[in-house]
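Students often ask why we bother encoding 3D structure as a string. The short answer is that it lets us treat folding as translation between two languages. Here is a chain of 91 residues written in the first language.
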Amino acid sequence: MSNVVAFLESLASNASPLSQEEFVAAIAAADLPDAARTALLARDVQALARELGGRGAVFCAIFPADNEEPEEDEPQEGGETPDQKPASRAA
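And here it is in the second language, the structure alphabet:
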């Protein structure tokens, strides 16, 4: 598995795209298992993920904190902005 990851890393570190012939030659020259080689040649992401023991889908969710303070330009609860002070009351 580490050979496959190292091969993918070497492909990703090269900024210039490979032609189909260069891609096939790179796969042929690499020390890869047959299943990984077949998946790469077919550009089958799911088969390669299965070969590497990866997950089919990964999800990410971000939830804001409940006690998050409002930004300076957002009005606060009660309709006051941070620069406004409550009007004084005469007794």
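Translate back mentally: Residues 19 and 25 are 10 Å apart (CA to CA). Keep this in mind for the problem set.
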